[in-house]
Amino acid sequence: MTLLSFLQVMSFNCSLWQDNSMSVKHFAFVKFSEVTEQCFLLFTLILFMFLASLTGNALIALAIWTNPALHTPMYFFLANLSLLEIGYTCSTIPKMLQNLVSEARGISREGCATQMFFFTLFGISECCLLAAMAFDRYMAICSPLHYATRMSRGVCGHLVMVSWGVGCTVGLGQTNYIFSLDFCGPCEIDHFCDLPPILALACGDTSHNEAAVFIAAILCISSPFLLIIASYGRILAAVLVMPSPEGRRKALSTCSSHLLVVTLFYGSGSVTYLRPKASHSPRVDKLLALFYTVVTSMLNPIIYSLRNKEVKTALRKTLGKKNVLTHR
């Protein structure tokens, strides 16, 4: 094969490469399905879940901010969790929806880096915030006499700032480190600009980048998870020695929603990222990506509103105020 023929083949197979450069400057998302009807069905389903997630999380955040009775550490963290969920879904789902109904499924190198930064920012921040919420429940149940002083407004504010700060730092560092590499193709990404699939497109030795991703995962994903496990281990030990069955039931009920959210978040992430490579398939990977980006975010408001009387009451008040303003 002559050099000209080789370049023509490369141009055909990877038309998004920049001219006179062997480094990818644009990426393309793999089509969800070749059947148009399936794409529109998926578009409708994802759009519904996306809007439900945005509406549910926005209502919970609004209900907490506008109801003084919910101005406590637990609900302060919950409001921030709702904001993170909104950002988490908005960083990926709009582009996913566009790819389902448009033939223009490309994304620039800069656009891909931006998506990766925000997805990493919100994902890592949520890991840290879930750990802060577990610590809050530990202090409330295991040290109730000191709870008000140890979980003051300033302490809660610092915990949230640290969560967002860690997410921002990791997002900036990983995005800058990965996009300092050259990309030789193939040009296609399965679902969105996540760390592992983009790193797999890089040319040359990526061992240092893989090590950096591994270290970040250990420090910012596994460590918060271990803190959550330790907190609930202490909570369980404290609940078991409570003399009153009513006290045990009340203590466990305050933790059940958070535990369910943690299980969904870490469970879906573990299935997605820790499965053996031999079990990966493009269709399954797309469905898992859809689940842990939009389904879990949609379920979180439902979990907290169904299992928490105070949140349900606040939501009714908030919706009631909206109805009154609408009819004026």
UniProtKB/TrEMBL annotation:
<keyword id="KW-0812">Transmembrane</keyword>
<dbReference type="Pfam" id="PF13853">
    <property type="entry name" value="7tm_4"/>
</dbReference>
<keyword id="KW-0297">G-protein coupled receptor</keyword>
<comment type="function">
    <text>Putative odorant or sperm cell receptor.</text>
</comment>
<feature type="domain" description="G-protein coupled receptors family 1 profile">
    <location>
        <begin position="56"/>
        <end position="304"/>
    </location>
</feature>
<dbReference type="InterPro" id="IPR017452">
    <property type="entry name" value="GPCR_Rhodpsn_7TM"/>
</dbReference>
<keyword id="KW-1133">Transmembrane helix</keyword>
<dbReference type="InterPro" id="IPR000725">
    <property type="entry name" value="Olfact_rcpt"/>
</dbReference>
<keyword id="KW-0472">Membrane</keyword>
<keyword id="KW-0807">Transducer</keyword>
<feature type="transmembrane region" description="Helical">
    <location>
        <begin position="40"/>
        <end position="65"/>
    </location>
</feature>
<comment type="similarity">
    <text>Belongs to the G-protein coupled receptor 1 family.</text>
</comment>
<keyword id="KW-0552">Olfaction</keyword>
<feature type="transmembrane region" description="Helical">
    <location>
        <begin position="155"/>
        <end position="173"/>
    </location>
</feature>
<feature type="transmembrane region" description="Helical">
    <location>
        <begin position="117"/>
        <end position="135"/>
    </location>
</feature>
<dbReference type="InterPro" id="IPR000276">
    <property type="entry name" value="GPCR_Rhodpsn"/>
</dbReference>
<feature type="transmembrane region" description="Helical">
    <location>
        <begin position="251"/>
        <end position="267"/>
    </location>
</feature>
<feature type="transmembrane region" description="Helical">
    <location>
        <begin position="211"/>
        <end position="230"/>
    </location>
</feature>
<keyword id="KW-1003">Cell membrane</keyword>
<feature type="transmembrane region" description="Helical">
    <location>
        <begin position="287"/>
        <end position="306"/>
    </location>
</feature>
<keyword id="KW-0716">Sensory transduction</keyword>
<keyword id="KW-0675">Receptor</keyword>
<feature type="transmembrane region" description="Helical">
    <location>
        <begin position="77"/>
        <end position="97"/>
    </location>
</feature>
<protein>
    <recommendedName>
        <fullName>Olfactory receptor</fullName>
    </recommendedName>
</protein>
